[in-house]
Design a protein that fits this description.
This protein has nine helices and nine strands. The protein has a six-stranded mixed β-sheet with strand order 1-4-5-7-8-9, with helices on both faces. The chain has a three-stranded antiparallel β-sheet with strand order 2-3-6. Helix 3 links the parallel strand 4 and strand 5. The longest helix is centred in the first third of the chain and has 22 residues. The two termini are about 30 Å apart.
Length: about 260
């Protein structure tokens, strides 16, 4: 079952509905949780009908997607495990560029998320692998991370408000160093945790491992790193010129092709 990413206004609306919603013994990204419900409502009966056929009776189910589709795939995978919607068949999920979508086993949005998720949620997470391509910003976009980024940008703005245009231009083009007071201000803002707002929680990508495919520009290749999803969720949004172009599906395809070819050698 393959789910596409954002290609329409309705998809963009789903993306921004990032407040927490109770979902499968945890909290989930509201828009994508609702989308997961709708996807199964539209396709579940047909999929189970296929499983009734002799040629597919021993098959499992693989769910995959990119961006919005990846986040929805992760949540649908959890729903299939928790509600046993395909019985005891094996279900696996491969998510490309998913945003943080799930906070397991804690209905309290101010909780620390350290409790072990229930067994079925844990099994769903164990059966999920997520992928990030280089500087793609989407896998780090959540209400918490965007609010944190806003506070850091505000710290920069407060210390550069009266800076001459030429100085800004020179810093941007790396002709001048960033002033120390800006570094100090950003460092201080990073240490201050903002109080959570209603519906906010520290979601993560619900995956056993996050494969971060990073470019090695010097050697013209990609290197894959296996990362812990909880630690990935603690990162803030990394600002770079390719933070959105690195999100494109063809970028993921090229990186995966390289890693597969490199592995076969």
């Amino acid at each position: 079952l393959a789910l596409r990413g954002t290609l329409s206004l309705s998809g963009a609306i789903v993306d921004v509905q990032g407040m927490a919603l109770e979902f499968c013994l945890g909290l989930a990204h509201q828009g994508m949780a609702e989308m997961a419900e709708q996807v199964w409502e539209a396709s579940g009966a047909e999929i189970n009908k296929l499983f009734e056929q002799d040629e597919f009776k021993d098959y499992g189910l693989i769910i995959t997607g990119h961006s919005l589709g990846a986040g929805t795939s992760c949540l649908l995978n959890i729903k299939l495990h928790v509600d046993k919607l395909v019985g005891n068949r094996p279900v696996k999920c491969y998510a490309f560029a998913p945003p943080p979508t799930f906070f397991p086993c804690n209905p309290d949005a101010t909780g620390d998320g350290k409790a072990d998720p229930p067994a079925l949620v844990k099994k769903a997470i164990e059966n999920t692998i997520a992928y990030i391509h280089d500087n793609d910003a989407v896998p780090f976009l959540s209400i918490s991370s965007v609010r944190k980024l806003a506070s850091l940008l505000d710290a920069v703005d407060n210390n550069s408000e009266f800076m001459w245009f030429y100085d800004r231009w020179a810093i941007f083009h790396e002709m001048k160093d960033v002033p120390k007071d800006i570094f100090d201000s950003v460092d201080e803002a990073a240490k201050n945790e903002a109080e959570m707002v209603d519906g906010e929680c520290r979601m993560k990508i619900p995956a056993r491992v996050v494969v971060w495919m990073q470019k090695d520009e010097d050697n013209n290749k990609f290197v894959g790193y296996g990362c812990d999803a909880t630690k990935v969720a603690k990162n803030t949004v990394f600002m770079s010129q390719d933070m959105f172009s690195d999100h494109l599906p063809e970028q993921y395809e090229d990186a995966l092709d390289f890693l597969l070819a490199d592995q076969s050698e």
